[in-house]
Amino acid sequence: MNERGYQLLQDTVERLLRRHATKNLTKILNKTHPADIAHLFRLLNDRSARQLFEILPEVESAPLILSEMEPRVRIDFFHFVDLKRAAEILSDMAYDDAADLLGDLPQELRDQILALMPDKDTEEVAELLSYPEDTAGRIMTTDFLNVPETMVAHEAVHEVRKAAERENVFYLYVTDGQKRLVGVLSLRQLVTAPDDTPMSGLMTRDVVKVRVDTDQEEVARMVSRYDLLAVPVVDHADVLVGIVTVDDVIDVLKEEATEDMLKLAGTSEEEISSFSAARSAKVRSPWLLIAWIEGVIAVNIIGAFEVQFNAHLQLFAALAAFIPIINGMGGNIGTQSLSITLRGLATHRIDPKHLWRVLSKEVRVGLMLGIAYGCLLGVVGYFLKQDVMLGVVVGIAMCTNMTIAALVGTFLPILAVKLKIDPAVASGPFITTSMDILGVSLYFFTAYFLIVRLAQ
Questions:
Q1: Where are the alpha helices (DSSP H) in 347-456?
Q2: Strand ranges (DSSP E) for 17-163?
Q3: Closest C-alpha among 383, 416, 379, 406 to residue 394
Q4: How many C-beta atoms lie closer than 10 Å to residue 263's C-beta?
Q5: Which residues contact 167 (CB under 8 A, 6 or more apart)?
Q6: What's the rounded Cα separation, in Å, for the pair 442 and 330?
Q7: Which one, of 147, 248, 154, lies nearest residue 203 by Cα?
């Protein structure tokens, strides 16, 4: 659906909500694709979303709609629905989707819903929930097709036909007598093989697989690297326990990329799905508080140097005029280096083991750009103030600041990886405000040394 279609759907739904035309609204929702309804919740205001949540349990495609919703949005659904009906909806969902949804709920509410679900569904979902968050075990599906290695081709074709209703039949996984994964073959290999060919003669033994505790980002990289539609998941005994499909991988890539981008901006995903200004302010507040504290430190540093320039107040005022451009350029190149390094780490194009190679390259880049823009600013400083020494000071400060900013922007995320911390925590606001303190200190120290000390 395009933007015009979403606008028409939103207008129609809001009009029917105002009229309390529940029957007509339910008919429209049943004719609308679940993904479009899930997107609709992002467009509605708080009041309309709340009213639509109350109707959602009566919609036939409610399980699919919940699967497509943003995590923060669908959690709100459980504030408006009877828990028994919620358990019925979750029982109609794929096990991995149900586990993903329940994993975001408070423990007490999760246990209440699991107790209301059929025993078989509870067992399957509880098993997925037992794996750590953001691992292959948590996002895998247990709905897959496997056959023993002794089975012949025509028997395997029969098994595929019996599994026609399954949505995850991309490959045929071959297991031994202990259910250990020993091979894989495509459906094309199967249907083109002679009827009496055993699986052991058709399968590929070198299987790309992941373990249940493999990080979901690594799973996504494996699927992308080998162009797979699904990747098998095994336990520590190589027993096949599930598969991760490409649709889940796409969700992981989007989730991780969004998370890193928002951390760079000093916020979180909670703000995207929130309609509350108060909640958005609360999410942004911690990072802004850090920036504010660092800003106060920078003010105190400037104040400390002001005392040293008592006899040169006119010069101090001239120096202060160049602070925005020097700090701004340092913050810009620091953020650029940070973004490049984060992306390189995420795609494995940058290896933390080659720290010095990466650092030396970015320092050279910062130095070259620093010299170029430092010379330009030095010339501008001279012509504006008709003071050669002022031009020298601002030029050196610009060059030094940009070089160090490139170094810090590259070093911090690599250091975070070595310390097993998410490198995205070295976010844009942190880099920018840190460079403000460092830039101001270096700037006025250079000016004090070259102009005040040497003049004595």
A1: 355-385, 388-418, 428-447, 454-455
A2: 146-148
A3: 379
A4: 22
A5: 143
A6: 12
A7: 147
| Half-sphere exposure of residue 212: CA atoms within 13 angstroms, side-chain side | 19
At a CB cut-off of 8 Å and minimum separation 6, what does 1 contact? 9, 33, 36, 39
CA distances from 368 to 58, 337, 438 (A): 64, 14, 20
CA proximity to 255, closest of 237, 242, 268: 268
| Range 270-293 burial, b when 16+ CB lie within 10 A, else e | ebebbeeeeebeebbeebeebbee
* Span 104-148, pLDDT tens digits: 888 888 899 999 999 888 988 999 999 998 899 999 988 888 899
Determine the number of helices (DSSP H) and then strands (DSSP E) in the chain: 24, 6
Give CA–CA dist 374/400, Å, rounded.
9
Position 86, amino acid: A
pLDDT at 441 over 80: yes
Is the pTM value of this prediction over 0.90? no
Instruction: Note the pLDDT tens digit of each residue in 209-259.
Output: 999 999 998 898 898 888 888 999 999 999 999 999 888 888 888 777 776
Which ranges of 163-245 would DSSP assign to H, the alpha helix? Answer: 187-191, 199-202, 216-225
Q: What is the DSSP letter of 451?
A: I
CA dist 104 and 206 (Å) reads: 36
- Which is higher by pLDDT, 269 or 284? 284
121-133: b or e for each residue (b if 16 or more CB lie within 10 Å)?
bbebbbebbebee
- Of 312, 336, 345, 271, the residue nearest 447 (C-alpha): 312
